[in-house]
Write a structure and sequence with these properties.
The structure holds 2 protein chains of 2 kinds.
Chain A: H1 5-8, H2 18-31, H3 44-56, E1 57-58, H4 69-82, H5 89-102, H6 119-132, H7 135-140, H8 143-153, H9 170-182, H10 194-199, H11 218-230, H12 239-247, H13 269-272, H14 276-286, H15 301-311, H16 329-343, E2 344-346, E3 351-353, H17 374-384, E4 390-393, E5 398-402, E6 409-410
Antiparallel strand pairs in A: 2-3, 4-5, 5-6
Helix pairs in contact in A: 3-4, 4-6, 4-16, 5-6, 6-9, 9-11, 12-14, 15-16
Chain B: H1 2-14, E1 31-32, H2 36-51, H3 56-68, H4 73-85, H5 90-103, H6 108-121, H7 127-137, H8 142-155, H9 161-171, H10 176-188, H11 195-211, H12 216-226, H13 237-247, H14 251-267, H15 271-288, H16 293-307
The chains are: A mainly alpha, B mainly alpha.
Family (chain A): Belongs to the protein prenyltransferase subunit beta family.
Pfam family, one (chain A): Prenyltrans
Catalytic activity (chain A): L-cysteinyl-[protein] + (2E,6E)-farnesyl diphosphate = S-(2E,6E)-farnesyl-L-cysteinyl-[protein] + diphosphate
Chain lengths: 416, 331
Amino acid sequence: PVVPSGLLLCCRPAAVKPRAAMQHYRFLLILLPCVCLPRPTLLREQHYQYLKKGLRHLSDSYECLDASRPWLCYWILHSLELLEEPIPAAVASDVCQFLARCQSPTGGFAGGPGQHAHLAPTYAAVNALCIIGTEEAYNVIDREKLLDFLWSVKQPDGSFVMHVGGEVDVRSAYCAASVASLTNILTPKLFEDTPSWILRCQNWEGGLGGVPGLEAHGGYTFCGTAALVILGKEHMLDLKALLRWVVSRQMRFEGGFQGRCNKLVDGCYSFWQAGLLPLLHRAFFKEGESQLSRQRWMFEQQALQEYILLCCQNPAGGLLDKPGKSRDFYHTCYCLSGLSIAQHFGNVDLHHELILGKEENRLAPTHPVYNICPEKVAQALQHFHQLPVPEADQRHGASSWVGPATGFRVQMFNGG
Amino acid sequence: KLFLIVIVDSLVHWADLEPVPQDDGPNPVVKIAYSEKFSDVYDYFRALLKKDERSDRAFALTAEAIELNAANYTVWHYRRVLLQALQKDLREEMRYITDIIEEQPKNYQVWHHRRMVVEWLNDPSEELEFIADILSQDAKNYHAWQHRQWVIQEYKLWDNELEFVEKLLEEDVRNNSVWNQRHFVISHTTGYSSPAILDREVQYCLNQIRKAPHNESAWNYLKGILQDRGMSSHPGLLEQVLELKETHCSPYLLAFLVDCYEDALENNNQKETLNRALEVCEYLAQEKDTIRKEYWLFLQRSLESRFGPSAASGEPLADGTEPPAGQQELS
């Protein structure tokens, strides 16, 4: 039936059994001081002011993120793009120049100027630059050096360390695959044995742990699954077991998601966990699954929107883990990303929206693999796929590039 | 007085070094309002890093920098370089990292640093007790469990771990991290192949379920250890679960039933089994586990499609889905 999505969800659904609804509302009543529950509102203006300020200035409470400043750029820029707030050209240019200062001379991006390169801020910097999407932004990335950096953190067993001399876990594979695919420096050799390593992270619960043997966890499950999707190997997972695990992570009373079995709900898992459903939907579809819905993801979209809008907003702007916690840019990014996932089903060709509350609550759609807007993904891919894939010299950590038409190799550094 | 001490200290110990301010550029973004102390420490840190100075004052400064931001992995890396270059006492470093982890147990860098020191010393003897202490404060600390699994696997310290698991499960049978550790220990020692072990584990689960019927971890573990062998491979289990359904029902029990039926169907497609499976899916979707309605209905359609009479009729099944033809939309 064609029902305007705003109307469909503006009154408490009669279809939900009274007892379940009551328990749902009982939770919300306990946690909320006010009792005005219907028609939740996204506090756009307040979030916008919080984000606009943070993009320039942060209090000293952010000293703990002094080695994660590209993350701050990404979290804020992505939140703004979800809110469909434009980034002024001057600000965008300033971000480009700052991220250029975070780029390491040996490739990759660091947590701040003068620090060592690390896959996490590398992921964040590339995403932030792709959100900006100008020539200036794309040109910041030194692709040849980036490839050298990825080789420098690659391990013989297929995994990646997060930084030279650093720890291994499945986040690194996702960060590497994300930046390599977006900037067109991905070669099969770079990710040799990576899929089989990631697969070892799927455990008896059906989800993935950070390294083989560990408890299944939403963040790591997202990273492992998204990495495999990028590498075209998602079918190697036990998809049915993974699906059962992730849908079981939605909390029946709160509506939000927990990160691990028998732990508490947290707004950030609105993305890490719920974001798996679009990935799995696509994976099942590719496998020929005929019973997939054409309108809904396999989680309760309305309940997640309710949790985020009713429990995760700070009235002064910004979003958070759960009531009682303080706001931060990480939770702002991932609560909004999760809200977007819950509002939008499908892709460019098939799109079905389910907006809880006013139409003004609508966010821009986000790409479930990269978590930046799909147009920005397409634009970046289009830009970087015009460029030749650098040929990395793994032995010397230097790279050359193969000229487009002539086939002659132009050797930039020594190395044979 | 402290103010004067700090000034004198700078003059005496750092006079030769020109601090290097952070290069944020002319129009900074995400600019943090660092305290004066933070800026000072890091300005000097940058100066040392630039020189690649390998000295005791550099080593001392890394501790200050870490205290101000324990997540600065560049500082940790430098500290490790200094530990080796200056041949520092690694036992003392173990004491240091123990204190830091106790203060900040949810940080990646501190655990990785401890792992490096343990490797250099080739001495895991303090680890299990230390990790147990951290877990006594937060029994689900992911880094702690990761470190514990690494130590046990690397140094083959399996012997007492199942006992540790049992103790923690007695304290909190709902601690999913402990159930995971149980699986980790058994799969790396005895394995689950032997009927004696498998039976012991199944009985253990059922006992825990009787005590706490709504504990999802126990049900997940039960499924987890049986799924590769086939849920129906354990004779009498389905009957035991159906018995439990009367007094200890839960959405998890019902989901387990669906899994049993699905497994049975894979070996022997019977109409009655399929009907029971579809019925439980319906019950879960509409009554007992409505938050997962979309999933249970999908599973229901999937079972019908795989095991039901042929879906060649071409009728739409539910909620806008149709049999295979024309599925190019979701590219």
